[in-house]
Specification:
The protein has 285 residues and is mainly alpha-helical. 73% of the residues lie in helices and 3% in strands. The chain has helices at 3-36, 55-63, 65-95, 101-109, 116-126, 132-139, 152-176, 180-188, 193-222, 225-230, 239-248, 254-279; strands spanning 39-41, 44-49. Helix 3 packs antiparallel against helix 9 (193-222), helix 7 (152-176) packs across helix 9 and helix 9 (193-222) packs antiparallel against helix 12 (254-279). 27% of the residues are buried. This is ABC transporter permease. Residues 68-275 form the ABC transmembrane type-1 domain. It holds the Pfam family BPD_transp_1. Keywords: Cell membrane, Membrane, Transmembrane, Transmembrane helix, Transport.
Length: 285
C-alpha cells in the first residue's frame, strides 16, 4: 500500500520537467516544422498560408549548397584539430600532471567564464593584419592573401578554440577511467611506450573520443558567430549564417530558414542515433 503514494509522488515530480520540455522544446520544434512547409502568398511577400510545401527543403538545399558543404567542412576540420590538441592535454592531465591536474583543469574551464562573443572577437584581434602573427607570416612569405581574417582559416581557428573544451572534457573523463594496471601490463609484456599507447590507451579512450567528436562537431556545424566575426559574407558563410539571414533579413524567408534548420537537425539526429546504436548512452558524458 505504501508503494502507490510514493509512485504517484514520483510521477507528479516529473510534471514540471515534462511541461518545461513540451512548452520550450517540443512546441517550438513542431512550430518550426510547420513553418518549413508553408507557402508564400503570390504577390504578398511576408505572408504565408499553411501548406505541405515539401519542395521548401529541396529549394533550401539547392539555394545554399556551398554553405551546407562549408559548415560540415569547417566543423570537421575544427573537430579534427580539437582531437589532435585535446588528446595530448587530456593524457598529460590524467597520467603525467600529478598535483598540477587541478590547475590544468581550471585553465581548461576558465574560458567558459568569458562571453563566447568576446572570445571570438579576441581572435579577430589575434589574427588581424597588424598583429604579430600576420606580420611574421607575411615576412616569411607564408601569407599569400595578405591577411588571416575573413578567411576559412580564421573561422576554423575560432571554432577550434571555442569548442576545444567540448572535446577535452569527455576525453579526460574517459582516460581517467583507464586502469593504470592495464597500462603497466603493456610494459610488463615488453611493449614499447608507443605500442602500449596505441594498443591499450587509445582503444580504452574511444568512448571519450566518439563523445568528444559528437559534442564538438554538432555545435560547430550549426555555429554562425565565428563565421560572422572572423569570416566574410561571401567566402566563409555557413548554414547558421544563411538561417540568420533568412529569418531576420529576408522578407518572406521564414519557410526557407525553417527548412534549413530542420535539415541541420536531422543530420545531427542521425549522428546521435548512430552513436547510441554503436556505443550506447552510458559513455556520452
Amino acid at each position: 500500500m505504501s508503494a502507490r503514494p510514493s509512485s504517484r509522488v514520483s510521477w507528479w515530480l516529473l510534471v514540471p520537467g515534462v511541461a518545461w520540455l513540451v512548452v520550450f522544446f517540443v512546441a517550438p520544434l513542431v512550430q518550426l516544422f510547420t513553418v518549413s512547409l508553408q507557402s508564400d502568398y503570390p504577390g504578398y511577400p511576408g505572408y504565408y498560408y499553411r501548406d505541405l510545401a515539401w519542395h521548401n527543403y529541396l529549394d533550401a538545399v539547392q539555394a545554399y549548397p556551398a554553405q551546407v558543404a562549408r559548415s560540415f567542412g569547417f566543423a570537421a576540420a575544427a573537430t579534427i584539430l580539437c582531437l589532435l590538441l585535446a588528446f595530448p592535454v587530456a593524457y598529460t592531465m590524467v597520467f603525467k600532471a600529478g598535483r598540477w591536474r587541478g590547475l590544468l583543469m581550471v585553465l581548461v574551464v576558465a574560458p567558459f567564464f568569458t562571453s563566447f562573443v568576446l572570445r571570438t572577437v579576441a581572435w579577430r584581434q589575434i589574427l588581424a593584419d597588424d598583429a604579430p602573427l600576420a606580420r611574421m607570416l607575411s615576412q616569411l612569405h607564408l601569407l599569400p592573401g595578405g591577411h588571416l581574417t575573413d578567411t576559412g582559416f580564421a573561422v576554423v581557428m575560432g571554432l577550434t578554440y571555442n569548442f576545444l573544451p567540448f572535446m577535452l572534457l569527455p576525453l579526460y573523463a574517459s582516460l581517467e577511467r583507464v586502469d593504470p594496471a592495464l597500462v603497466a601490463a603493456g610494459s610488463d609484456l615488453y611493449a614499447t611506450p608507443w605500442q602500449t599507447f596505441r594498443m591499450v590507451t587509445v582503444p580504452l579512450a574511444m568512448p571519450g573520443v566518439v563523445a568528444g567528436i559528437l559534442l564538438t562537431f554538432i555545435p560547430a556545424a550549426g555555429d554562425y558567430v565565428n563565421a560572422d566575426l572572423l569570416g566574410s559574407d561571401r567566402g566563409t558563410s555557413m548554414v547558421g549564417n544563411a538561417i540568420d539571414a533568412q529569418f531576420f533579413r529576408v522578407l518572406g524567408g521564414y519557410p526557407m530558414a525553417a527548412a534549413l534548420s530542420v535539415v541541420l537537425m536531422v543530420f545531427i539526429l542521425v549522428m546521435v542515433l548512430a552513436y547510441v546504436r554503436r556505443y550506447g548512452t552510458e559513455e556520452l558524458m
